[in-house]
Amino acid sequence: MRAKHTVTAFLCLLIIISCSRNKFDGKNGLKVILFSNSEDTCQVIEYKDGKKNGYLKEYYENGKLKIIQHFVDDKNVDTAKFFHPNGNLEAIQIYNNGEKAGCWEKYNPQGKLFSKICFENGVFHGAAYTYSYKSLNLIEKFNFQNGSKVGPQELFYNNGKPKSIAYYYYDRPGLGLKEWDENGNEINNDFAISYREQNKVNLENKLYYIISLENPEADDEVFRVVAKDTGNVITQYQRLEKRGDSHVLEFSVYPGGFVMEKVKLAAYRKTKFGNTFIKTISFNASANNF
Q: Are residues 247 and 211 in the same domain?
């Protein structure tokens, strides 16, 4: 009896599809696309006024559902679902009037969640998680606000141990980076910063500070930053000129003038993991041209 019902349902599906082929006039109706050199249905798409309006369904060659999406005037709306060949859910994507919205999720063939990232107004917003495909150990945890990285960004080894934690403020790296090797030992990314004064006020109306970093690297950068920043936040407002392996902070001191400032600098260096380690230094700059 069950086999009879299955055959009947299959014949009904064929009849529906066969009839629908005659109902699409190029702008309206149900468009059916077949697999190449086959009578098996690949896609079924609803159209109105030449645009996708209604459901798009795509199938595997074995007849199982692969994708189901809902459109209004060619825009994705509502929730799109994707399936593995075995029938298990592969992904969920949510749209609001064509924009990405809500939490998008991905699943492995066994139906286990391995990725989740949320959107608001079409951009990343909130926490995002990535797990290893098979073991499902957490390997990434990022935090976003309005499309930008904000707060702690964490990476983990496949064995579950922490790899790094970096802090961001609207996509700009901040202080506090920590990294570990696979055995759980913290990696030392620290380096020394030194400076020396070159007072050429009498000759050039200039006061220079030569900034040197221990074991300099080609992509090192040094910025003058806001001295009142607190926590992990760094606010840049002047990139120092690089001369050879050093960086130069320059003040103009014209006749009758003087400089008396507290200077705060931040040195940026990339780590082997691709993170940015930041170290700061403060000193008083002073000179006069009386």
A: yes
How many other C-beta atoms lie within 10 A of the C-beta of residue 174? 21
Report d(CA 119, CA 144) in Å as an integer.
9
Domain count, the chain: 2
Residues 185 and 191: their CA atoms lie apart, in Å, by 18
CA 53 – CA 71 distance, rounded (Å): 5
pLDDT digits (tens, 9 = 90+) for 25-82: 889 999 999 999 889 999 999 999 999 999 999 999 999 999 999 999 999 999 999 9
Does one domain contain both 70 and 40?
Answer: yes
Q: Measuring CA to CA, which residue among 63, 59, 125, 137 is closest to residue 96? A: 125
174-214 per-position pLDDT tens digit: 999 999 999 999 999 999 999 999 999 999 999 999 999 99
Co-location of 221 and 130 in the same domain: no
208 with 230, same domain? yes
Whether residue 140 is contained in a domain is answered as: yes
Domain housing 101: 21-179
Tell me the pTM.
Answer: 0.80
Same domain membership, residue 172 and residue 42? yes
In a domain, 16, yes or no: no
Q: Which residues are CB-neighbours of 5 under 8 A, at least 6 positions away?
A: none
Question: Domain for residue 15, yes or no?
Answer: no
